[in-house]
Design brief:
Layout: H1 2-8, H2 12-21, H3 24-53
InterPro entries: QCR9, QCR9_sf
Main location: mitochondrion
Family: Belongs to the UQCR10/QCR9 family.
Length: 72
């Protein structure tokens, strides 16, 4: 009896399947967009982590490097 009641409930995966995985074109687009935005998020996070761990060691942080003397 309990099994029959659970079969009639819709789970999260069934909703995900109906929304994303029913058509191949939508599924492939979801995967490609997820990979693109996931890569951007990881790149941003690693970049910020690297910058926070290397404060004072970067080229931009050293005041005498990269500056040309002003010619008058």
């Amino acid at each position: 009896m309990e099994y029959a009641a659970r079969r009639n409930q819709k789970g999260a995966f069934e909703g995900f399947y109906k929304l994303i995985m029913r058509r191949n074109s939508v599924y492939v687009t979801f995967i490609i967009a997820g990979a693109f935005f996931g890569e951007r998020a990881v790149d941003y996070g690693v970049h910020k982590l690297w910058e926070s761990k290397n404060v004072g060691k970067r080229y931009e942080d050293i005041s005498v490097l990269g500056q040309r003397p002003v010619e008058e």
